[in-house]
Design a protein that fits this description.
Helix 2 (40-49) links the parallel strand 1 and strand 2 (54-61). The protein is of the alpha/beta class. The protein has helices at residues 3-18, 40-49, 68-81, 103-107, 135-145, 159-167, 171-174, 201-205, 207-214, 225-228, 235-241, 247-262, 271-280, 329-341; strands at 26-32, 54-61, 89-91, 151-154, 177-181, 220-223, 285-294, 305-308, 319-327. The radius of gyration is 20 Å and the shape is globular. 38% of the residues lie in helices and 16% in strands. It contains 14 helices and nine strands. A nine-stranded mixed sheet has the order 3-2-1-4-5-6-9-7-8. The structure holds beta-D-ribofuranose and calcium ion.
């Protein structure tokens, strides 16, 4: 063996020894306000689980669409159904940093404040349990042990991420990239909110966490409502998805299928799935680099994200990020269907 090859071999053995994951995969931590299908988080996780581009180091749960308990219980079961129960699950924040339950929250979408026991997921509760370690400790330890390597995928309120940023001063500087589904940007087309006139749900549930995160210095790819609104999952696409029989398509038939039976003309937006797909193939989306900040005044714009081409008064600390606003829908949905139909990994 010549000297150069020997040096390369030693170097690659060193890299393999310092990381548990395969070098051609992106190591990700998947942070989610998970609920079983037809919720978007579960379809986003299906896509990630079925994609060899990722090494999922762990799933961290947060209150958002439903309670923290439900997010955790559903994701544990989902991992069993997907045949990847070895992926560890870490329990995160059960409430936002500051935002409290209100009459408005109760009357509108989302059960983030709830502490009701979770309903039994499809096929019963998982025998797999969540880890003892907290979501924040897992994130901090993993990122700090692998500087610049780990990507965070955040598709719920940003409470866990903000807590990790606050817990460890070196955390933000050592994250490879953070891909967020959240916000809505009025400067770009289709930038209205979906929970208040201007605020998007994930940012509105925890506006203070969103601001801490967006100002943290972590390189951010933002997948806001602007790009989500370029998607439209119809019954026809759903029927194509389930022509192949796998445990994942069976779950989709049982859940999404029932919803299409009741509402055959409904169009479903695919929010979190686009965030994940854009990591696998960045050419699926079109983005613009903007400064984005979040309003944390407890007034009419609480939780609203604001994007600008230059910083503006009050947003001097805002950082630039890639903001997605357009989608190649046919290529995206074809990719989603093809991956969900693959045999389980
Ligand atoms: C976001 O809010 C949640 O309801 C969805 O899962 C998605 O992450 C869309 O505003
Ligand atoms: Ca979500």
């Amino acid at each position: 063996m010549n000297k150069r090859i020997a040096v390369r071999l030693i170097l690659s053995l060193f890299v393999i020894a310092s990381n548990a994951w395969s070098q051609d995969r992106i190591p990700i931590i998947f942070d989610t306000d998970f609920v079983m299908p037809p919720a978007d988080d579960s379809m986003a996780l299906m896509l990630a689980l079925q994609s060899p581009e990722f090494e999922i180091l762990g799933v961290t749960t947060v209150a958002g669409n439903e309670s923290l308990e439900r997010a955790t219980s559903d994701v544990l079961r989902m991992l069993e159904i997907a045949g990847q129960a070895e992926i560890p699950v870490y329990v995160g924040a059960d409430m936002p940093l500051v935002h409290e339950k209100s009459d408005f929250a109760v009357e509108n979408y989302g059960k983030w404040y709830s502490n009701e026991p979770p309903p039994e997921p499809s096929g019963g509760f998982a025998s797999k349990k969540a880890e003892e370690k907290s979501a924040v400790s897992f994130m901090v330890d993993t990122v700090m042990a692998n500087p610049g390597e780990v990507m965070l995928v955040a598709i719920g309120p940003l409470t866990n991420i903000a807590q990790a940023i606050r817990a460890e001063p070196g955390f933000a500087g050592n994250v490879r990239q953070l891909v967020i589904m959240g916000g809505a940007v009025a400067l770009l087309p289709q930038g209205a909110g979906n929970i208040t006139p201007n605020a998007e749900f994930n940012f509105w549930v925890d506006p203070e966490a969103a601001r801490v995160t967006l100002r943290s210095g972590i390189p951010i790819e933002l997948s806001p409502l602007n790009v989500s609104r370029k998607s439209a999952l119809t019954k026809d696409w759903y029927e194509r998805m389930v022509v192949v029989d796998t445990p994942l398509t069976a779950l989709l038939r049982e859940t999404l299928g029932r919803r299409f039976e009741a509402e055959p003309d409904r169009l479903w937006l695919m929010y979190d799935q686009i965030a994940v797909a854009s990591i696998i193939d960045p050419t699926l989306v079109t983005s613009e680099r903007l400064y984005v900040d979040v309003d944390i005044d407890h007034g009419i714009s609480y939780g609203t994200s604001v994007g600008g081409r230059k910083p503006w008064p009050g947003a001097e600390a805002a950082q630039q990020m890639n903001v997605q606003y357009d989608l190649d829908w046919p290529r995206f949905i074809e990719m989603f269907i093809e991956r969900v139909q693959r045999p389980l990994r």
